[in-house]
Design goal:
Elements: E1 4-8, H1 32-42, E2 47-52, H2 54-67, E3 80-85, H3 107-112, E4 122-126, E5 129-130, H4 133-145, E6 152-159, E7 170-177, E8 183-194, E9 200-204, E10 212-214, E11 219-227, H5 231-246, H6 256-265, E12 270-276, E13 281-282, H7 289-301
Parallel strand pairs: 1-2, 1-4, 2-3, 6-12
Antiparallel strand pairs: 4-11, 5-13, 6-11, 7-8, 7-11, 8-9, 9-10
C-alpha cells in the first residue's frame, strides 16, 4: 500500500499577493509543492491529489503534466495525479448558499472534496509550506502502519521556534497532548514573534491573554495531518452540523483542527502527535521570498536536493 498526498492549493495567498503555489523559488524555478512532492515520493507516497479552484484548475493541470512527466514512485510505477475542485456551492443540497459569501469554506471542507478519489491512508499538507524530508518520512511510515485501522489520525508537530518568520508575526496552533502522545487540544495563538530578549511571545485567541511567553520547543500545527479514509464520513457529518449553525455567516470557515477536536472530544477517534526535527519555511509575506530562495539554494549546494529537481 502506498499512501496518498493531498495538497491544499485552493487558496490564493491574500497576504502574499498572488498564486504563490506556482511561484518558482528553487534554483531552476522549482515551487515549494515541487519539493514536497519530491520528498513524498522518496517517503513512499504513490498518488498526489490537488485541491484547487476551478478558475485555475486547467493551469495547474497543464503545469503538472509538463513538469512531472516521467516521475515514478519508489516501486517504479508512474506517479498518479488527481485534481479536485473546492467551490462555495459544494454543500449539501438542503442548504442555500448565502450570496454574500465569497471565500471558500475552509481547510476541512477542502479535504472533503477528495472523498471519492482517496480510499487509503493519506496525508494533508498546505501547498505553500516547506515541511522537510524527515516530516514526510515520519508521516509516510505512520500511513503505512495504519492501513487497516479506523479512527486513528495524526498531526506532525513542528517545534514553534522552527516555524517563525523573520518578516512579521505569525499565527500558530499550539498542540497539547496526553502521556500517550495523543492530541488533547490545539489552541490558536496570534501575533507570535521572537522578541529582543530571545523569547517567543504571542496572544492566546481562546483565553484572550496577550503577550504570553510561549515555549520555543512547543509543538505546533503547520497543517500537516495523517488520516485514514473513515475521516471523510465523520467530517461530512460534522460539516452538516456546522452549516446548520453557520450557513448565513459569510466568513465562518470549517477548519481541520475543529473537525479533529470534535472527533477526539466525542470519543470517535484519536490523533497522535508526531514530532519532526525539520525546520519549516514558507512565503507568508512577500518579504519572505528572498530568504526562501536562499534556503533552497543552500539545500541544493549541500546536496540534499538535485538541481534541477525534475
Amino acid at each position: 500500500m502506498k499512501p496518498t498526498l493531498l495538497v491544499l492549493a485552493a487558496g490564493m495567498g491574500s497576504r502574499y499577493g498572488g498564486l504563490k503555489q506556482m511561484d518558482g523559488l528553487g534554483p531552476h524555478g522549482e515551487t515549494i509543492i515541487d519539493y514536497s512532492i519530491h520528498d513524498a515520493v522518496e517517503a513512499g507516497f504513490g498518488k498526489v491529489v490537488y485541491i484547487v479552484r476551478e478558475s485555475f484548475k486547467e493551469q495547474m493541470e497543464e503545469a503538472v503534466k509538463a513538469k512531472y512527466n516521467g516521475v515514478k514512485t519508489i516501486d517504479g510505477e508512474p506517479l498518479e495525479f488527481v485534481f479536485v475542485t473546492q467551490e462555495l456551492n459544494k454543500i449539501p443540497a438542503r442548504f442555500t448558499l448565502n450570496p454574500e459569501r465569497v471565500k471558500p469554506w475552509g481547510t476541512a471542507h477542502a479535504v472533503m472534496m477528495a472523498a471519492d478519489v482517496i480510499k487509503e491512508p493519506f496525508a494533508v499538507i498546505n501547498g505553500d509550506d516547506f515541511y522537510g524530508k524527515d516530516s514526510f518520512r515520519i508521516l509516510g511510515d505512520w500511513c503505512r502502519k495504519h492501513e487497516n485501522t479506523c479512527g486513528q489520525y495524526c498531526i506532525v508537530g513542528f517545534q514553534l521556534e522552527n516555524t517563525l518568520s523573520e518578516n512579521g508575526s505569525v499565527s500558530r496552533g499550539i498542540c497539547t497532548y496526553d502521556q500517550k502522545g495523543n492530541l488533547t487540544d490545539v489552541v490558536e495563538h496570534l501575533e507570535i514573534a521572537k522578541e529582543a530578549d530571545g523569547k517567543v511571545y504571542g496572544n492566546n485567541s481562546v483565553s484572550g491573554e496577550t503577550h504570553v511567553e510561549l515555549a520555543a520547543k512547543a509543538l505546533c500545527s503547520m497543517n500537516m495531518w495523517g488520516f485514514t479514509p473513515d475521516y471523510f464520513a465523520k467530517s461530512e457529518k460534522l460539516f452538516e452540523t456546522f452549516l446548520e449553525k453557520n450557513i448565513n455567516e459569510p466568513k465562518k470557515e470549517f477548519y481541520i483542527p475543529y473537525v479533529v477536536d470534535v472527533i477526539v472530544k466525542e470519543g470517535e477517534g484519536s490523533c497522535e502527535v508526531l514530532s519532526t526535527p525539520s525546520r519549516w519555511f514558507g512565503v507568508t509575506f512577500k518579504e519572505d521570498r528572498p530568504g526562501v530562495v536562499a534556503k533552497f539554494a543552500e539545500l541544493v549546494e549541500k546536496g540534499i536536493y538535485p538541481s534541477p529537481l525534475y
